[in-house]
Structure formats: structure tokens, C-alpha cells
């Protein structure tokens, strides 16, 4: 057979036993969602939060768990659904897969972030006062007696579940939408960090949330995948979640 047929062009000829690069390197798969997907998840989060607040004016322990968990979980689940319907799934679109290198990177950066966040929180409390430095979740739980099982569920949500869901939104959908617009990584990092801080809808704590978000965004940027930022976020949330658990169980003063 002459060289240069349709099956083997001249410029792609290869030695016997070799596999052409074009057959071993899969084509890049791009997603079909953008900023609208992120805004949709934010709208769902806000709408569900408002509806639950209107339905449960003075929540008991059971409804308190629903009010804390349902908006965040629904928004995170919607983010995953969007990647499945309009993309390639969270593993390819977000890089959400188990890699020890990402886990160790997330633990290392999250540990550094935990130290800086703790110092920043102490300074922030001294500057604005304890009442103004209180998070929305802390305010919602203030003075509420929780059964041990409920307290543990809320602890696990704040420590593990909420960081995962928030990362799906901010360093997943939002990050990916800006990458699709061909923004530089530094610009994506800066804007997603700012939106994360503002999106918590806690104006008194926005500056503190910026400090909290920086190491989490760094973990996403240096690895290029979501797993590291999820782990870093969970490390950052561990001490606040543990503090709320101990207060709820009466082991620490409120």
C-alpha cells in the first residue's frame, strides 16, 4: 500500500507497532454551561432559604436542620445535574475525583488557611465586636438547645457537606464558566474569591470571608481540580463546626 493514503497521511506516518498520537490523546471535552448556570444555583439557594424562613418562623430542632441543610444541598445537587445535562459530569468538568496528591495539597493549604483564618477571626472579633462577627449559622443556633443527634448532624453538615456544596458552586460552576470565557487563572481566582465572600450575604463579615476564601481558591488554582479546594474548605470549617457542636452540647459556654 502506498504511503499517504487516507488511512495514514504522509505527515502522520508511524513505525510498525507504534500508535499515532492522535489515537492516544482524546480530544478536549468542553462543557456547554456558563455564568447562567451559576446564577441559577444561587437563585435556587436564595429562594429555598426565603421559603423555609417564611414557613418556619420560630424553628424547632428538626426544622432548624432542614433550614440549614436543604438550600445548600439542593444548590449543590443542581450544580452536579447541570454538569451531567450540559457538560461531561463533575469529574471531567470540575476535576472532582479522588487523588491523594489533591487530598494532601488540600490538607496542607487548608492547614495554613486554618491558622490564618483563626488569627484573622480573633482580630476581626476585637475590631467589630463579637455580635457583629457572628456568622448567620451561629446566629441561627444562638440560644437553641439541640438534641445530641441533631447537634452531630449540623456539625457534619458544616464540616463536610456545606464545603462540598459551596465548592461545586463557586470553584466549580463559577470557576468553569469564567474559564470557558478564556479568563486568565489569576482573574478567575480573584473574582471567584470575591463572589464567594459576597455570596454568603453577610455584609459585616465580607472582609473576613475574603481572608477565608483565599487559601481555598489557591488550592483550586495550583491543582486545577476541585478536590483540593473541597478538602481545604473542609479543613477550614472543622474548628468552627466543632465549636458549635460543643456549645450545642453544653460543653462550652455560648
Automatic annotation (TrEMBL):
<feature type="transmembrane region" description="Helical">
    <location>
        <begin position="62"/>
        <end position="85"/>
    </location>
</feature>
<dbReference type="GO" id="GO:0080120">
    <property type="term" value="P:CAAX-box protein maturation"/>
</dbReference>
<keyword id="KW-0812">Transmembrane</keyword>
<dbReference type="Pfam" id="PF02517">
    <property type="entry name" value="Rce1-like"/>
</dbReference>
<dbReference type="InterPro" id="IPR003675">
    <property type="entry name" value="Rce1/LyrA-like_dom"/>
</dbReference>
<keyword id="KW-0472">Membrane</keyword>
<dbReference type="GO" id="GO:0004175">
    <property type="term" value="F:endopeptidase activity"/>
</dbReference>
<feature type="transmembrane region" description="Helical">
    <location>
        <begin position="33"/>
        <end position="56"/>
    </location>
</feature>
<feature type="transmembrane region" description="Helical">
    <location>
        <begin position="207"/>
        <end position="223"/>
    </location>
</feature>
<keyword id="KW-1133">Transmembrane helix</keyword>
<protein>
    <recommendedName>
        <fullName>CAAX prenyl protease 2/Lysostaphin resistance protein A-like domain-containing protein</fullName>
    </recommendedName>
</protein>
<feature type="transmembrane region" description="Helical">
    <location>
        <begin position="149"/>
        <end position="170"/>
    </location>
</feature>
<feature type="region of interest" description="Disordered">
    <location>
        <begin position="1"/>
        <end position="27"/>
    </location>
</feature>
<feature type="domain" description="CAAX prenyl protease 2/Lysostaphin resistance protein A-like">
    <location>
        <begin position="151"/>
        <end position="239"/>
    </location>
</feature>
<feature type="transmembrane region" description="Helical">
    <location>
        <begin position="182"/>
        <end position="201"/>
    </location>
</feature>
<feature type="transmembrane region" description="Helical">
    <location>
        <begin position="106"/>
        <end position="129"/>
    </location>
</feature>
<feature type="transmembrane region" description="Helical">
    <location>
        <begin position="235"/>
        <end position="252"/>
    </location>
</feature>
